[in-house]
Amino acid sequence: MNKTIVMKILEQKKINYEYFEYDAGIVDGIGVASALKEDVNQVFKTLVTTDGNNHFYVFVIPVNATLDVKKVAKIVGKKSIDMIKQKDLEPLTGYIHGGCSPIGMKKKFPTYLDKTVENFSEIFVSGGRVGLQIKIKKEDLIKLVDAKIDELTLEK
Predict the structure, then answer these.
(1) Tens of pLDDT along 96-147?
(2) I want to staple 152 with a disulfide (CB 3.0 to 4.6 A). Which of 83, 103, 109, 114 is the partner?
(3) How confident is the model at residue 155 (pLDDT cuts 50, 70, 90)?
(4) DSSP the chain
């Protein structure tokens, strides 16, 4: 298997991880969690947002959750936050939709992890391409991407 930038960074930093491949035809996070036979609360998706003024923010939340854009706008001190357009994702981050990882983006953006990460010692995030997830210790991810932890999602 060709190693992704995510895997190369983790190995360079001597951070332990496991990787899991799944059918690249699975396009939603809940389907990915199901394919991995893992708790949907432990499998996280990476969302890239903007304030509309060329400031970008990364939010990592469980695949079964919805980002609360009003809440996160307050957290980052902006009037409003919106998802970036899908066509802008790869030029900005180096990743395509469905394969976006908080690790190894082209630039370092302020990154936030949902508070529910505290319920787990390890979580799953994209391995940098569709069809690949990595399991990593939450502390390693937090340190690597300099993430802040906060409540980021709509109440269920």
Answers:
(1) 999 999 999 999 999 999 999 999 999 999 999 999 999 999 999 999 999 9
(2) 114
(3) confident
(4) -PPPHHHHHHHHTT--EEEEE--TT--SHHHHHHHHT--TTTBEEEEEEE-SSS-EEEEEEETT--B-HHHHHHHHT-S--EEPPHHHHHHHHS--TT---SSS-SS---EEEEGGGGG-SEEEEE-SSTTEEEEEEHHHHHHHHT-EEE--B---
Residue 107, domain member (yes or no) = yes
